[in-house]
Amino acid sequence: MTTPLRLVLADDHEVTRAGFVAMLGGCDEFEVVGQAADGDSALQLCEGLQPDIAILDIRMPGLNGLGAARLLQQRMPHLKVVMFTMYDSPEHLEAAIGAGAVGYLLKDASRDEVIAALRRVAAGEEALNSAVSARLLRRITDRSNAGAPPTDTLTNRERQVLGLVAGGFSNREIGEKLGISAGTVKTHVERLIAKLGVADRTQAAVRGIALGLVAQPTADWPGSAP
């Protein structure tokens, strides 16, 4: 009998995690060997359990899925990362690909769709939601035709803050890293949201990654030490 592929699942909603595990019930090809409610816990589980695939939600408390994916790619480049999310926007897909994800599944996917996607990922292929991928392709084409959007309105400090926001860190952690108060960080985040034309800090992070404004996290970022 073939040994099942080992999965680590990270989502801050216990019901979602339980539903995903139940969805794989009866499928001997995959086994969820660990569950986490945030990105930091997912990192620890992956480093300890050495799974074949990590299934990550994008929006989680603490270190979000995008930040976790980037750090996992640095520390465990052999690990395959799949985003399992409610976001069906091309910006989120682009950010996920930029973070190293090879799969992008929506939470309303059917059992057959999920299993088929995991099989493709296990075989070394990409498994990206086709409808969102099509919109992303149109977006890239439109962006190419229109020229890249201006990004010089962000100050150097705002770019620093944006990078740490994209890593999933709190205002307090960002303030400690940059030597400024949490209130000042909050002001920078509010300005970033306004300048990038988004609704919240998660969307700001996604937009920043899509525009190439966010650098890879380094070892001296809060919470990213080995």
Automatic annotation (TrEMBL):
<dbReference type="InterPro" id="IPR001789">
    <property type="entry name" value="Sig_transdc_resp-reg_receiver"/>
</dbReference>
<keyword id="KW-0597">Phosphoprotein</keyword>
<dbReference type="InterPro" id="IPR016032">
    <property type="entry name" value="Sig_transdc_resp-reg_C-effctor"/>
</dbReference>
<dbReference type="InterPro" id="IPR000792">
    <property type="entry name" value="Tscrpt_reg_LuxR_C"/>
</dbReference>
<dbReference type="Pfam" id="PF00072">
    <property type="entry name" value="Response_reg"/>
</dbReference>
<dbReference type="InterPro" id="IPR039420">
    <property type="entry name" value="WalR-like"/>
</dbReference>
<keyword id="KW-0238">DNA-binding</keyword>
<dbReference type="InterPro" id="IPR058245">
    <property type="entry name" value="NreC/VraR/RcsB-like_REC"/>
</dbReference>
<dbReference type="Pfam" id="PF00196">
    <property type="entry name" value="GerE"/>
</dbReference>
<feature type="domain" description="HTH luxR-type">
    <location>
        <begin position="147"/>
        <end position="212"/>
    </location>
</feature>
<feature type="modified residue" description="4-aspartylphosphate">
    <location>
        <position position="57"/>
    </location>
</feature>
<dbReference type="InterPro" id="IPR011006">
    <property type="entry name" value="CheY-like_superfamily"/>
</dbReference>
<dbReference type="GO" id="GO:0003677">
    <property type="term" value="F:DNA binding"/>
</dbReference>
<dbReference type="GO" id="GO:0006355">
    <property type="term" value="P:regulation of DNA-templated transcription"/>
</dbReference>
<feature type="domain" description="Response regulatory">
    <location>
        <begin position="6"/>
        <end position="122"/>
    </location>
</feature>
<protein>
    <submittedName>
        <fullName>Two component transcriptional regulator, LuxR family</fullName>
    </submittedName>
</protein>
<dbReference type="GO" id="GO:0000160">
    <property type="term" value="P:phosphorelay signal transduction system"/>
</dbReference>
